[in-house]
Design brief:
This protein has 505 residues and is mainly alpha-helical. Among the domains are: 162 residues, Arc Repressor Mutant, subunit A (Orthogonal Bundle), CATH 1.10.10.10; 84 residues; 69 residues, no CATH class. The chain has 20 helices and 5 strands. Helix 19 crosses helix 20. The longest helix is centred in the last third of the chain and has 33 residues. The radius of gyration is 47 Å and the shape is rod-shaped.
């Protein structure tokens, strides 16, 4: 039979008493484990066989009052309370017991500092012992600590638990319980019932006062008394009741019914709720302005709403709208090439709230922007009308038959007339003789320079008028193939419905 190893008896006598919370406190010395003894190799306790037996020891320490954290430090929790038991419940479900601080924060809802304080309490009470202590390596992930769930020797002494060492050369913390004294059986049963229950997170004071959703009071369920406060209009339970269900029915006052029915009252409630939900705080106004700017400005499409909200935070806080921002951008001037939209917006909005610091100034900027928009619209309309008159025309055939026959004869004579000879001048490389254009080289160079200057500004009037008056071959002789090609490209761009072209420097 193996040798029995029991921790050395403490000087105070072991006297168990009936009640766990107050009367069952055993006359033991203060429960405190220094940091040097918080390792598995130096601990005086024994390893708990499983989480259930360990939770019995946790509840005993919580009710015994032998451990007082404030006796050894002035910060942290004041006692071993329900929050420490909740942290212990999470540790009891782990195998191996290697919890991360972030995991416990997520499971318990506590802060990181609170979790660290309660882990320290469990170690100082002898309920946890380090197997591996977590480390933080620079540039690498943090390693979690691995604990051993321990049962302190004071628990065994208080309940009269006998332990045995099953292997002679095994360490002392591997000893196992083999029996319990008769005086500690009742206390062990109470601890077992507590370990079987789960300690929940305490509700807030407001939620304690408010009744739970769907809860029914005893008066509403069984008594059927009309004076009960919690009686519903329609009973939720199945079966008959001694009272009438319509006894607690109440109707809205006539002052709340505008048109004789409850519809107006419902609409009033919905509108008031919409007004309450429509109120935005400062951050909400920033995000709202950012979304509107991304929708209004083409060069902001695809930008992050969060980034634009941060860029436009100053004007949003000053009460600017998206129209005010458009007016300011018109005064400030927009860039033709945009590489980073958020950075450009930050530059354009710099100091805007200090320049247009009053609603009157912002309104003037908006009016100027709208005037420019209207002028641009009118200019585009005039351009479209001019192009249609130039290329399509609104000429109609005469109604008079005599005039109609004369016009047809003139058009037929024009088409049947021979064209000028193309080889009148052999010195001309293009084949067009001097009979076509009686101009010298200097005038020809001036005409080409004027046409090129017009093309730089997007104006093809000179070339197109020459084509209509003299034909394509003569215009090619005067302006050359390069200028003709550029004029044709500009005309195609202008006629396209997908692009807009405006004359400008």
């Amino acid at each position: 039979m193996g040798r029995m190893v029991v921790a050395a008896p403490l000087p105070e006598p072991v006297v168990p008493v009936p009640d766990l919370v107050a009367d069952e406190v055993v006359l033991l010395p203060e429960l405190w484990v220094p940091e040097a003894s918080q390792w598995l190799s130096t601990s005086s306790g024994r390893i708990a066989g499983e989480g259930y037996s360990w939770m019995q020891a946790v509840h005993w320490v919580a009710g015994a009052g032998l451990y007082q954290p404030r006796r050894h430090r002035s910060h942290g929790p004041r006692s071993f309370g329900p929050t420490t038991v909740r942290v212990a419940q999470e540790l009891a479900a782990l195998s191996p017991c290697r919890p991360g601080i972030e995991y416990l924060v997520r499971r318990t809802g506590l802060s990181e500092r609170s979790v660290q304080n309660h882990l320290q309490i469990l170690r100082e009470a002898g309920l946890l012992a380090w197997i591996v202590r977590g480390t933080r390596v620079s540039g690498g992930p943090a390693q979690a600590s691995e604990f051993a769930r321990m049962i302190p020797v004071e628990f065994d002494l208080a309940l009269g638990i006998r332990t045995v060492q099953r292997e002679e050369d095994a360490p002392a913390f591997t000893r196992a319980a083999c029996g319990v004294a008769e005086a500690g059986r009742e206390l062990m049963a109470k601890l077992a019932r507590k370990a079987a229950r789960k300690v929940r997170r305490p509700r807030s004071q407001a939620s304690r006062k408010a009744p739970a959703k769907g809860a029914r009071t005893g008066a509403a369920e069984g008594s059927g008394t009309a004076a009960s406060v919690g009686v519903r209009c329609t009973p939720m339970q199945v079966g008959t009741s001694a009272g009438f269900s319509a006894g607690g029915t109440s109707f809205p006052p006539e002052s709340r019914l505008a048109s004789g029915d409850a519809k107006s009252h419902i609409e009033e409630k919905s509108s008031s709720r919409t007004r309450s939900l429509g109120k935005l705080n400062r951050v909400g106004r920033r995000y709202q302005l950012a979304r509107e700017l991304i929708q209004e400005l083409d060069w902001l499409r695809g930008c992050s709403v969060r980034r634009i909200a941060w860029v436009a935070r100053n004007v949003a806080d000053a009460g600017w709208t998206v129209t005010d921002v458009r007016g300011w951008l018109h005064l400030r001037g927009e860039a033709a090439t945009v590489r980073r939209a958020s950075g450009l917006l930050a530059v354009l909005l710099a100091g805007a709230e200090s320049v247009l610091d009053t609603p009157r100034k912002r309104a003037a900027a908006v009016e100027q922007w709208r005037g420019a928009q209207e002028a641009a619209r009118r200019h585009r309309i005039q351009q479209v009308r001019a192009d249609r008159e130039r290329y399509e025309g609104d000429w109609q055939a005469p109604q008079d038959r005599a005039v109609h026959s004369e016009v047809r004869g003139a058009v037929a004579q024009l088409h049947s007339s021979p064209r000028p000879a193309l080889q009148d001048c052999p010195d001309d490389e293009s084949g067009l003789g001097a009979a076509a254009f009686a101009i010298d080289d200097k005038d020809l160079a001036d005409i080409r320079a004027a046409a090129e200057a017009g093309l730089q500004h997007g104006d093809t009037t000179l070339i197109t008028d020459t084509i209509h008056a003299c034909g394509h071959d003569q215009a090619l002789h005067v302006y050359g193939p390069e200028l003709m090609h550029r004029a044709r490209q500009l005309d195609q761009v202008r006629r396209s419905s997908l692009t807009r072209y405006a004359y400008g420097a």
